Predict the structure.
Amino acid sequence: MKLIDVHCHLADPCFDRDCDEVVKRALDSGVVAIVTSSQSLEEALKTAELCKRHRGVLYHSAGLDPCLLNEEAVLQVAEFIKRNRDQLVAIGEVGLDFHKVVERDRKEKQHKIFSFWISLARELDLPLVVHSRSAGKYAVEQLLAEGVERVLMHAFDGKVGYAIKAASRGFFFSIPTSVVYSQQKQKLVKHLPLESLMVETDSPVLGPKPGRNEPANLHYAVEKIAEIKGISIEKVAEITFRNATAFFEIKT
Ligand SMILES: [Zn+2]
């Protein structure tokens, strides 16, 4: 069984002491590729080094924390993305976070920055990995209005109706390991076709149990999806793997 963790943050300082072992444990558990997402220029540089060290296993998706409404930071990361386009498999995570950003003018700024990333993804022909905490509806609406096609909604916490609409337009959804207890994620799995799903850990967060999450836990998500859909674990692994390799153009 081969799996791909399509979203995590291995440049997080909590992995500094044992990142190599974390990658090894992932490989031992059947995870053959890991897309690790950077959220600042500093993290992008660190992530690029990590991906070099684990070539063929780690893949880089470069983005910016959606709560960092700082033009200088946006331009710096955009420069990095343009310079390193061929070393990247996606732009993200980027998007909207209305959990942390609540004031109207700051929300507007977030929409504007998101729009900038959407057009950069189009310009560079890279897929987008989208964060949409407490803003699922607004993120989906903006993406559809701006006509972008290659989209992965990561850890989507919005209403299932918007997810169904987005999936019917070709968007993908990555189901995190927290699906073992999150009823909202379970509902998403129930109502979306397997052809629209991928799996992620979002390490170091969203683990199947309390404590630091890591890519070796990815199988928890696969097992739960199989249980909810009443199909085999192998089938879930096969289809989510195929979705991920096609979306990120990863050759394993
Ligand atoms: Zn994340």
Q: What stands out?
A: The longest strand covers residues 88-97. The mean pLDDT is 97.
